[in-house]
Design brief:
The N terminus is likely disordered. The longest helix is centred in the N-terminal third of the chain and has 12 residues. The chain is mainly beta.
């Protein structure tokens, strides 16, 4: 798969971003929206290469932290950390499908069940992963590790997240936050997003 270099972006240092790009090129992914199987492949391939991101991790006890490792028109890869009591809150992914793989610690995921009212829970430790489709609503929270670390992949790249209240009648949408707005609510500056050569 080939893309114009101006369409490949990362917040990681240039040489690291290029190495991540090479790992992803070796997967020989199809063009367009990735399947859950391909999202799983991407998350596990990047998670297996801790040397490419481990020194980039920020352990922020005050607020959730993430870093864009790679983005092209079809998908994006993010590095996330989780500390005590940190949670994503109930949200969907704006129509994107996704996958996540844990590289340190343990995460607890709760997701909306098929009846749209009850909740299913699961624990994810190092080497474990989850995938989801475009209508998935979930909440991920820290369970163990200082910090817990995970690789997340979304296809297409996130446009924003809709956040939900859980009520006795099911999940009720309360707010859509565009991705560019969410980026300003974190500790990592986003003004150094660059193209990958």
């Amino acid at each position: 798969m080939t893309y114009d270099t101006v369409q490949l972006e990362s917040e990681a240092p240039s040489e690291r971003a290029e190495a991540i790009h090479r790992v992803l090129e070796d997967l020989d992914l199809p063009d367009g929206r990735l399947s859950r199987y391909d999202l799983e492949r991407v998350s596990l391939a990047v998670a297996a290469r801790r040397d490419l991101f481990e020194d980039l991790i920020v352990d922020d006890r005050e607020s959730r932290w993430w870093l864009l490792l790679f983005r092209n028109p079809a998908y994006e890869v993010k590095l996330l950390t989780w500390e005590d009591d940190q949670s994503s809150d109930w949200h969907d992914h704006g129509g994107s499908s996704g996958a996540f793989a844990v590289t340190n610690g343990v995460l607890l995921e709760r997701h909306r069940s098929e009846d749209h009212v009850s909740v299913v829970s699961g624990h994810f430790g190092v080497g474990q992963f989850g995938t989801f489709g475009p209508d998935y609503v979930h909440d991920i929270m820290h369970e163990a590790g200082k910090p817990a670390v995970s690789i997340h992949v979304y296809s297409p790249p996130l446009s924003g997240l809709t956040f939900y209240d859980r009520t006795g009648f099911g999940f009720v949408a309360k707010e859509f936050i565009p991705e560019e707005t969410r980026g300003t609510q974190r500790t990592t500056p986003t003004d150094h997003v660059h193209s990958i050569a």
